[in-house]
Specification:
This protein has helices at 10-17, 41-56, 74-85, 91-107, 109-130, 141-154, 160-175, 196-211, 217-225, 237-250, 258-261, 263-266, 273-285, 290-298, 303-320, 328-335, 338-348, 356-369, 372-380, 385-397, and strands spanning 187-188, 191-192. The chain has 414 residues and is an all-alpha fold. It is built from 20 helices and two strands.
Length: 414
């Protein structure tokens, strides 16, 4: 396929990239298995056993593959698991590894919760070994973790402009519904021609990658603004969500109050939905409780700040305070109780008139549950009709990338 992708002037692009930092995988570069050797079943099982030790054993957080020791927290345990499995070579081995991880995630809650982040690392290694060959169709589950990782490596290897164009072309092919008559527009006669979940998360992945080579929030917003592609002209901040996510991993914020947390957003000239995303991620990545963020939201008047603030309430209340860390077991148990989870959601999002809190809570929790039927059952137990509709729209829109398809969680009756 030959096409021209709208993008910023080359001179401006290069001026931003020349000031870039090079992003290397957070778990380092390891010696990679020989391309000529296919991983056997026994070796694959051994690696998954090591990963399971990292995720489940509270006394041992050591990669069985490398011997590296990690801290006893959610992020470090996930990195330990990833390093125990991720460094393979050749597309055959990558497929074996990804398929095996997805199969494990279908029946094991620990792997299910970590699936996205482990696949990030698998994707990083895959691009370093295989470049464009690593981007194959069919691995968009677990929130596109595999593609996000591959994209991050793609823009760290010195050929940013050509690789970025390749990533955009891949996202277009991935997101459009097979058999669409035209790819020139987002809709034809009002009918969507693209998958909204794949569309959003693929552009989110490109944002992740840009954060590795752009040093400031302002430049990240400018770069995402100029990534003009098929269906997102109405909201280019989709790319910026991935940028902010990765940027704050690489540059941890330090604000102790909501006002301090969002101060970096105030120092930029970004506007509209970009401010929304900046506020959301700044609040979510600081140690701000959902109750503190909710109180801050109530005092705000500017539309996009309010929207970003309530988005953060949903993220913090749904993920940080329920699905990871010391409350993770409570969260997993609550997922099996649709009525109980719905009650919790309504408590977290009380006072939100924008629907942002609920939309973001369900999109983030869906990344952990990876089961559309579980999420839809919770939606149906919300007491307000408009909330049920918002929930079902969010869950349905992401179903193609947040549903493992089998091995579903058993649910208690409401």
């Amino acid at each position: 396929m030959t096409r021209t992708i709208g993008f910023m002037p080359v001179r401006k692009l290069l001026s931003i990239f020349c000031a870039a930092v090079v992003l290397v995988s957070s778990v380092g570069i390891l010696v990679i298995t020989s391309r000529d050797n296919t991983i056997g079943a026994a070796e694959l099982e051994k690696r998954f056993a090591w990963a399971e030790e990292c995720l489940e054993n509270p006394n041992i957080v050591v990669s069985g593959l490398t011997g590296k020791r990690y801290k006893d927290n959610v992020r470090e345990r996930t990195l330990c698991a990833a390093q125990s499995v991720a460094n393979v070579s050749g597309m055959v081995n990558v497929r074996l590894l990804v398929d095996g991880l997805i199969e494990r995630s279908q029946r094991d809650e620990e792997f299910r919760s970590a699936c996205h982040d482990i696949l990030h690392e698998v994707g990083r290694y895959a691009w370093l070994d295989l470049s464009e060959e690593s981007l194959i169709q069919g691995y968009d589950t677990c929130g596109m973790g595999y593609y996000h990782g591959a994209m991050t490596s793609a823009l760290a290897e010195g050929k940013q402009q050509s690789n970025l164009n390749h990533l955009l072309e891949f996202c277009e092919e991935l997101a459009f519904v097979p058999g669409s008559a035209s790819k020139a527009r987002a809709t034809v006669d009002g009918k969507k021609l693209y998958d909204p979940g794949k569309n959003s998360l693929c552009m989110h992945g490109i944002g992740h990658a840009l954060a590795g080579v752009v040093k400031s929030i302002q430049n990240g917003a400018e770069l995402c603004s100029d990534v003009i592609v098929y269906s997102i002209e109405s909201d280019p901040s989709v790319c910026f969500t991935g940028f902010m996510n990765e940027y704050l991993v690489l540059n941890p914020p330090t604000g102790s109050t909501p006002s301090e947390a969002v101060s970096q957003c105030d120092e930029t000239s970004i506007t509209g939905s970009f401010i929304k995303q900046c506020v959301k991620y700044m609040l979510a990545f600081n140690n701000i409780k959902s109750s503190e963020a909710r109180e801050y939201c109530m005092k705000q008047n500017e539309e996009w700040v309010v929207r970003g603030c309530w988005s953060a309430v949903g993220w913090v209340g749904g993920i940080k305070e329920l699905m990871i860390g010391e409350n993770a077991e409570k969260g997993k148990a609550l997922l099996k109780n649709p009525k109980g989870f719905a009650t919790y959601v309504e408590s977290v999002c009380a006072g939100d008139k924008t629907s942002e809190c609920m939309a973001h809570l369900f999109s983030e929790v869906g990344q952990v549950a990876l089961d559309t039927s579980v999420m839809e059952a919770i939606c149906q137990n919300l007491t307000v009709a408009a909330s049920r509709e918002e929930c079902l729209n969010t869950v349905g829109g992401l179903s193609s990338v947040q549903d493992l398809g089998s091995g579903r969680l058993e649910r208690t009756k409401p």
